[in-house]
Amino acid sequence: MELINKSGRRPDFVLFTGDLIHDTGRHDVHAHRMQLFKSIARRINTAAIHIVPGENDAALYGGVLYRGHFGKSYYSFDHKGVHFIALDNVSRGRLDVGPDQLAWLKPILDAIPKLRRSWFLLIDRLSTSSLNGNRSLPMATTL
Is residue 98 part of a domain? Predict the structure, then answer.
């Protein structure tokens, strides 16, 4: 945070790709750590902060605590002609995005070739070994 703020340049956005905190078996400690991260991140001199959940943030409580502190766990946004897709592959307690997220993702991916623009997939962890054996991620192997 201090390096960004002292750089003399204000970034358009800052992206955190998971594991904002270290998980714990205690709900109150986990929630406190999330609140502490938010208070620190708010001090970054940037126009926007985008967060992708990591397993330490979301897997322990099925993403409920994460979403309560940070909002949606999967989303997309545009910035200067580039489309960013943030996926949550950890809230289900394994490397998996689930049917609801896949249904949300399909029209976004279908539209990308028509729009002819660059895009980035933001995800905490990607394991090709788990993708190969996971039938709920059919689109991930074609990305």
Answer: yes
pLDDT tens-place string over residues 99-121? 999 999 999 888 877 777 788 88
Structural domain count of the chain: 1
> Parallel, antiparallel, or unpaired: how do β-strands 14-17 and 49-52 relate?
parallel
Distance CA 139, CA 67 (A): 24
Q: Confirm if 66 and 53 have CB atoms less than 8 A apart.
A: yes
Which 8-state DSSP code applies to residue 130?
A: H
User: Got the DSSP string for 19-74?
Assistant: --S---S-HHHHHHHHHHHHHHHTTS-SS-EEEE--HHHHTTTTTHHHHHHH--SS
Write phi, then psi, for 16 (nearest 5 degrees).
-110, 125
**Calpha distance 141→131 (Å, rounded):** 7
Residue 101 resides in a domain? yes
Is residue 141, in this structure, part of any structural domain at all?
no
What is the distance, to the nearest Å, from the Cα of residue 18 to the centroid of all Cα atoms in its chain? 6
